[in-house]
Each structure stands twice: as structure tokens, then as C-alpha cells.
Amino acid sequence: MEAYILLTPSLIGFLLFLLAPIAGVVVISFFDWNLMGSPRFVGLANYREIAGDSEVWRAVRNTVYYVVLNIPAQTVLALLLALAMNRRMRGGKVLRVLFVLPWMAMPVALGIVWNWAFDPQHGVINQFLSLFGVDGPAWLSSTTWAMPVLASVNVWQYTGYTMLFLLAGLQAIPESLYEAADLDGAGPVQRFFRITLPLLRPSMFFVLVTNTIGSFQMFDTVYVMTQGGPGGSTDTMNFHIYQQAFQLFRSGYASALAMLLFALILLVTAAQVLYFRKRTVYDFS
Amino acid sequence: MSSSITSSSSMSIPAVLRRSTLYAILLIGALLSVGPYLLTLNAAFKRPADLLSTDAWTPAHPATFANFADVWNQYGMSSFLLHTLAVSVVVTAGQVVFSAMAAYALARLEFPGRDWLFWGYLATMMVPQMITLVPLFLMMRDLGMVDTYAGLVLPTVFGTPYGVFLVRQHFMTIPKDLESAARIDGATTWGIFVRIMLPLSRPILATLATITFINTWNNLIWPLIITNSDRTRVITVGIAALQGQHASDLPHIVLAGAAIALLPLIVVFLVFQRHIVRSIALTGLK
Q1: Do A6 and B221 touch (CB under 8 A)?
Q2: Average per-residue pLDDT in chain A?
């Protein structure tokens, strides 16, 4: 009885604002509906339209491209940073705080700052490049550069945050393992690949899975920096869904697109889970 | 704690070199992390003419507060900020209280369907947020809550699976003996929750509060969808609108707005950062 009283507020939120909308998405995806008038049942028509919609597949490609640019760079940088920070040093705590600062920055405000930084004439990036006589490109109006710029903004924002989780993982590795390796004459490279990396897998798993899910849902940075342009080169899935649902009022189609994105995320997450389950042998919990 | 001052004199020359290279790289990294903040602040203090004619790293001279005054008074930043503060405080308070209550029930009380419910919570953490916005908007519209504070607050004020999960994991680590002893002394479930569990969980509750506050403060998409007038508009939407309208003609105003939006968060983060770092170290692995 007491349990249910304690649970009631949370359950209201869970059922009403999480489960009900999820069920709603599934239902709406079978309808044609502009959010006004009455919905018209169209069966699988929305899903069939997706199959032939080249803009959707461009958005899928853009999203995957973004994830591929973003996740490896961010993870490797965070790992190097965590390895460097995993020792006693003066100012270590201050440095750690500085590295994590970008994580809490408001994406909208940041978008403005980065738009300004990447401005071809007045931006700090090109001003800096011109010191070396390099003529920087018009970053955000170039179909080649716009997406890498968005990815680097996110790498900047989440590297420190990711580093925190990996650092926590590094600090949980028992020192005795390294001492034993030293006795056996293992060098630094062997120590890294035989001890550090394998034992870091649980943290790595957490970081990769959550960051990948987040990257597939990237929205704010596109919204404030490029609005999907130039020429649709930064139109990601989540931004496309937003446009279809809330600018073109095609809620049925947007819901079907959301199902597609969900399926994509589920597929990638499942692949990561399977990969890590096969390889994670050690458990210190 | 650190003994690098005394030990450096006894270190070999290559070791000293290695250590200083490492420091140099870390310092460059730190500078890259903080740089955009500093440049923004610097630019926000520049006069409009100087902003375009000087390099980004040239200090604002003479510094002016006019940009801040303009964005505050003429572009409604003060009311956006007030709305954001109200929404963030209410959502944070609700999430911490309700998540803690649910977490206690899920961690300690016996009732049918408990584990089933817990896994249900976890499963929804994997569902993308964007997927639910259309039905959520329709529901809010039918309830007449478009462009109201209730519409802004309701979807998240009852707590999130993430919050419940975070606090439950912590409650699981508190020894059960404390509760048994209190029960023998005649304490009720509610009494144990308020007098034992909550006081023992201050760091994790502070972490949840900070994360919730920052997420709510920064949230763009839901306010963008559910508000449509300056009556309820929050700062993320205000900033996005400012950017959309004045990015090219009034960059100094837009940058001052960005600085105003970022500063309160930095303060919150600096106050609570110790809790965040510690609790990530405790819960991040499982």
C-alpha cells in the first residue's frame, strides 16, 4: 500500500507522458493527419512513402555520417585525456572541471558562439588561420565542411564529459594488476592493450552506447547552426522529423520517420551490446 | 596530496620533459574548453564597431555594458530568464522529490510487479525523446495546455526513468540494518524514508538536482513546440529567435544574450561540480 503511494506521482508521469505517447506514435504512423481536421487511416502508406523518399535516405546518410565523424573522435580524445589525467598532479582537479565545462553549455547559446567563430570574415577560426597565411573556407555554407563543423562542435562539447566516465573506469582498475605485469616484464604498450583496455570495457560500453544513442538524436546544434543546410547537407533524421511534424504538420509521416529512427538506434545499440557481451570477460563488481 | 614539487628535483631530465609536455598539452586542451566562453564574454563587452573591426582575442577596450542592457531591456531577456528560472526550479524540485519516492519503493518495498516495473522504466530510457513529441503535443493541446506553464512543466515534473534509476542505485547501497533498527523503534515507512534514506543520500540528490536543472534550463525542443508567445517563452527559445532574426545585423546583441544564458549555469555547475564528479565515479560503471 505504502509502495503505491510512494510510486503514484512517478507512475502518473511514466504512464501519461512516456508510455502513452510511445503508443501514440505507433498508432499515428498509420494515419494521415495535419494535427487539425480528422485523421485518415492510410495503413502502411507512410512507410511506403519513406521507401521512395530520397530526402529521408539522405537524412539517414547524414545522420550516420555525423555519428561516424563524432563518436570515434570523441571517444579516442576522451580516452587519451583520461589516461593523461589518471595520475596525481598539481592542478588536476581544476583541469578536470575546465574540461567538463563545455558539457553543460546551452546548445542554443553555443550555436550562436560557434556560428560567430566559424564566420568566414569576422570569425576567430579564420582570423587565426590568416595569421599563418591560410585562407579559411566559408565553413557553414560549404556542403563539404558544414557537417564536420557540427561534429567538431559536439566533440568539443562532450569530450570532457566522456572523459569523466572513462577516468572513473581507469581508477577502478586494481593497481596490483599493473604491478604483476611489471614483474612479468610487460612494457607500456602491453600494459595498455592487455590490462587497461580490456578492463575499461564496462565504462567504454556505457559511454559508447549512451553517446551513440545521443548522437543519433542530434537536434539542437543543427537547429541553431545550419537548419539542415546548405543544400540539405546537414539535414539529420531528428531535424527532418521535427520539420515534417512541426513545420509541415505531417504528423503521420513524422511518426513513421520516428519509428524508422527508433529502429535504426535499436539496431546499432543491439550490435554494440552483442559486440561487448562477447568480449567482456572480467567482472569486478 | 601531490608531491610533484619535491619529486621533480629528483626526477631525471627525460621525465621532467615528459611531464612538462603532458602539462602543455593538457593546458592547451583546457584552453580550448574554456576559450569559447571567454571569447563570448569578451565579445559581449565590445562596442558594435569594435566587434567587427578587431580580432576575437583582442580585449574589449573600452568595455561597454550597453549590449547587456539592450538585450535585457529591449529584447525581453529579463522575462525569458524569469520564465526559465521558474520552470527549471519547479521541474527540478518535482523530479528530485518524486524520483526519490519512487526509487525508495523500487529499492526497498515488497510489492507485486516491482521488478517488472523497474525494467519497464529502464526500457523507456532507450526510446528516443523526439519519437514521443507529436503525441505529447496532441495530448497537451487537448488538455488546453499549449502556451502555458503547465504545458512546459508537466511532462518532466513527475520524474524521469533516469532520475529514478540513479537514486535507486544509491538506495541499494545503504545498509538494511539501519531500517530494521528504526522499525523496531516504531518508525513508519514514511518516517524511515524522510529521516534515514534522504539524509544519507544528499550527494546523489544534489547531483540529480544539478543534472535536471541544467537539462531543463537548456531544453530547446519541447519549449519550442509547446510555447508560441512571449507570455511563456523560455530563454532557449528566445535566444534561438534572436539568432534567427538578428544574427547578421546585431551580432553584439546576440552574443550578449548568449553570455547571459550561459552564466547562471556555470555558477550552478561550479557550486555542485564536486557532487557530480563523485557520483559519476560511483554510478557510472554499472
Answers
A1: no
A2: 86
Instruction: Report the C-alpha gap between B192 and B204 in whole angstroms.
Output: 18
Q: What distance in Å separates the CA atoms of residue A190 and residue A168, rounded to the nearest whole number?
A: 21
Interface touch A90/B114, C-beta < 8 Å: no
Tell me whether A216 touches chain B (CB under 8 Å). yes
Q: Kindly write down the DSSP assignment for every residue of B176-214, as one continuous string.
A: HHHHHHHHHTT--HHHHIIIIIHHHTHHHHHHHHHHHHH
The residue type of B104 is: Y
A5 falls within a domain:
no
CA distance A110 to chain B (A): 7
| CATH code, domain carrying A114 | 1.10.3720.10
Superfamily of domain B75-283: MetI-like (1.10.3720.10)
Out of B117, B258, B273, the one facing A109 most closely (by C-beta) is: B258
A143 to chain B nearest CA, in Å?
20
Distinct helix (H) and strand (E) counts, chain A: 15, 2
Q: Give the closest residue to A6 by CA, choosing from B219, B188, B133.
A: B188
Give the tens place of pLDDT for each residue, A224-279.
Answer: 888 887 989 999 999 999 999 888 989 899 999 988 998 898 889 888 888 877 76
Q: Which domain holds residue A188?
A: 54-279
**Cα–Cα dist A42/A276, whole Å:** 41
Interface ipTM: 0.77
Q: Are A252 and A46 in contact (CB under 8 A)?
A: yes
Instruction: Write out pLDDT tens, residues A125-167.
Output: 888 888 888 888 888 888 889 999 999 999 999 998 888 878 8
Q: What is the C-alpha to C-alpha distance for residues A61 and A11, in angstroms, rounded to an integer? A: 38
Share the mean pLDDT of chain B: 82
